[in-house]
């Protein structure tokens, strides 16, 4: 068990931290990770937890604010730790995200010169179409990741206006559940609340099995259990980057691995002869079946990518890999290296597993064209990365 302590330590110098958006303080007996700081600042910090020479603390007073420090837009920032970067100017957030990817590349011994500037999100706030609230005594909010204290949140600045409307409606009324997922389309008047709420004072409909949203004008059905990109305009930009790199001329076979509800398969299908979309989740495949209605060149395969990718040896002209945070299974990478498509795009939400997987692909028959970070998640340290690769001729 961590020890909870109100200890305050004054005048510590904040150093560059690990890649979780936190700064670091090195004391004689312990190293602390610090929320709310910027490297180079001197600050007073309040200790949350410490154990075995490690711990977490939060900035409570800054003595020499960085030029990049801005007032957080949200009154909950710090109590709520969902956002880690609200105290940092948006251009500097982008620089930090660039550095996070660069650090992972350097750790893995990869050439970081391919990493371009981070593509900013036009909306710095109000961009998210999906919220997962924790509930305590009927109140919706988030759990502070260090103190584990529940923080009631009446308005979340990074969620879209639809989610905030539902939040206002449901605040204080959700005692029948501990978690609540609210998804609200960015481009349609469609929403989903799970689980179903049954209390008499709740007038809003809940328990929807799915909702719909538009990406590049295409209607996608998304079930409660299915993944969908949380920042629509950035997802559209990402699809554009992938399309440009794959440079399809209509005759190719594209494999979309980790396909979700068919997002990239659908958006790129007009450019190919055949699209094979592989996805393990039954819910996402069910959605994808609806999403490809009327498109006759997409085949859906419900399977783990590692169990089927080798079946397409010699058939793949182009490949999209968009795995979850843990990255691609080693056997997927081995299979791709054995039978390389001409063009490959790896979309990653975790820079560390990306670097690990790139090491294998670039040690094989691929070369990097460009690594393009896309800011899907302003105000947080998270970053999406689109890696554009091609087969090295003769390899
Ligand atoms: C980051 S999401 C990407 C989804 C989709 N490409 C999109 O942009 O909406 C990763 C997807 O991979 C699926 N997945 C996770 N592990 C998998 C595996 N081993 N094989 C196939 N799909 C998997 C998840 O269910 C999820 O839908």
From TrEMBL:
S-adenosyl-L-methionine binds at residues 229, 258, 279, 322. The active site is at residue 349. It comes from the Bacteria. Keywords: Methyltransferase, S-adenosyl-L-methionine, Transferase. One of its GO terms (biological process) is rRNA base methylation. InterPro entries: MeTrfase_TrmA_AS, MeTrfase_TrmA_CS, NA-bd_OB-fold, SAM-dependent_MTases_sf, U5_MeTrfase_fam. It holds the Pfam family tRNA_U5-meth_tr. GO terms for molecular function: rRNA (uridine-C5-)-methyltransferase activity. Belongs to the class I-like SAM-binding methyltransferase superfamily. RNA M5U methyltransferase family. PANTHER family: RNA M5U METHYLTRANSFERASE (PTHR11061), TRNA (URACIL(54)-C(5))-METHYLTRANSFERASE (PTHR11061:SF30). This is RNA methyltransferase, TrmA family. It comes from Dehalococcoides mccartyi (strain ATCC BAA-2266 / KCTC 15142 / 195) (Dehalococcoides ethenogenes (strain 195)). The lineage of its organism: Bacteria, Bacillati, Chloroflexota, Dehalococcoidia, Dehalococcoidales.
């Amino acid at each position: 068990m961590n020890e909870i302590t109100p200890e305050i330590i004054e005048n510590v110098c904040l150093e560059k931290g690990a890649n979780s958006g936190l700064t670091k303080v090195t004391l004689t007996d312990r190293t602390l990770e610090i929320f709310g700081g910027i490297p180079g600042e001197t600050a007073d910090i309040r200790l949350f937890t410490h154990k075995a020479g490690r711990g977490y603390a939060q900035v409570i007073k800054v003595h020499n604010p960085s030029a990049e420090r801005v007032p957080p837009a949200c009154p909950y920032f710090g109590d709520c730790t969902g956002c880690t970067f609200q105290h940092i100017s948006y251009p500097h957030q982008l620089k930090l995200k660039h550095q996070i990817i660069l650090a992972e590349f350097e750790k893995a011994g990869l050439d970081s010169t391919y990493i371009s500037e981070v593509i900013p999100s036009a909306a710095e706030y109000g961009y998210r179409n999906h919220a997962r609230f924790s509930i305590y005594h009927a109140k919706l909010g988030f759990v502070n990741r260090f103190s584990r204290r529940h923080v009631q949140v009446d308005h979340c600045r990074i969620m879209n206006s639809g989610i905030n409307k539902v939040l206002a409606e449901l605040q204080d009324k959700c005692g029948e559940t501990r978690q609540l997922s609210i998804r609200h389309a960015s481009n349609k008047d469609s929403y989903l609340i799970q689980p179903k709420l049954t209390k008499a004072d709740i007038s809003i409909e809940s328990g929807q099995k799915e909702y719909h949203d538009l990406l590049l004008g295409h209607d996608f059905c998304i079930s409660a259990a299915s993944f969908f990109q949380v920042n629509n305009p950035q997802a559209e930009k990402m699809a554009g980057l992938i399309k440009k790199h794959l440079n399809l001329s209509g005759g190719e076979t594209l494999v979309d691995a980790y396909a979700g509800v068919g997002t990239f398969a659908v958006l790129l299908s007009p450019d190919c002869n055949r699209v094979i979309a592989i996805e393990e989740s039954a819910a996402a495949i069910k959605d994808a079946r609806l999403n490809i209605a009327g498109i006759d060149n997409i085949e859906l395969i419900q399977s783990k990518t590692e169990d089927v990718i080798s079946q397409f040896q010699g058939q793949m002209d182009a490949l999209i890999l968009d795995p979850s945070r843990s990255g691609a299974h080693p056997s997927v990478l081995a299979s791709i290296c054995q039978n390389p498509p001409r063009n490959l795009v790896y979309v990653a939400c975790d820079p560390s597993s990306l670097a690990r997987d790139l090491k294998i692909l670039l040690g094989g028959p691929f070369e990097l064209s460009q690594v393009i970070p896309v800011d899907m998640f302003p105000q947080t340290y998270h970053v999406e990365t689109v890696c554009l690769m091609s087969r090295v001729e003769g390899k």
